[in-house]
Design a protein that fits this description.
It holds the Pfam family DUF7109. With about 160 residues, the protein is mostly helical. The chain is built from seven helices and two strands.
């Protein structure tokens, strides 16, 4: 099973958030139910990393002691893959409801980190993408990224 970023977001959205291990189990179950296939670890790792990079998934640690959850992010259009709709009934995982303000602040900080990296590297395409992401984040969570967006726009003009 080769899951897209939106499908990964769709699976985590079924639960409100999943740890990486839980997401792997959920996808393995969906792949098995679909046609008895397995999920290739390297492909899944690459898909998760790409989804995190594009903000289709975001990493959120609800507290210092808890394991980080993967949450459907601001750029995702969560899509539940075929045969995954029953996964919540199969896996014994309680639904989660992350604090939107804290989650929004976590994502704001991640956008700021990505912006600093893109500006330092002079990555014009990534800067343009992050400007678009900033609008998505503001629509998705109660945060204001006006200053970060202005900084990115200024970097494009230099």
């Amino acid at each position: 099973m080769d899951a897209t970023a939106d499908e990964l977001a769709g699976v985590v959205d079924l639960f409100g958030g999943l740890t990486r291990g839980e997401l792997e189990r959920a996808l393995a179950e969906a792949a098995y139910r679909a046609d008895g296939r397995t999920v290739e670890d390297a492909a899944l790792t690459a898909a998760i990393d790409e989804a995190l990079e594009s903000f289709a998934l975001v990493r959120y640690a609800p507290d210092a002691d808890g394991e980080a959850l993967l949450i459907a992010g601001p750029t995702a259009f969560p899509t539940v893959p075929e045969h995954a709709e029953d996964v919540p009934h199969i896996l014994d995982i309680e639904p989660r409801a992350p604090d939107r303000e804290a989650l929004g602040e976590t994502v704001r900080e991640r956008v700021l980190e990505a912006a600093e990296e893109a500006v330092a590297a002079g990555e014009t395409e990534r800067i343009e993408t992050l400007i678009d992401v900033s609008y998505d984040v503001e629509a998705w969570a109660p945060v204001d990224l006006t200053d970060e967006r202005r900084r990115l726009e200024d970097a494009l003009e230099e």
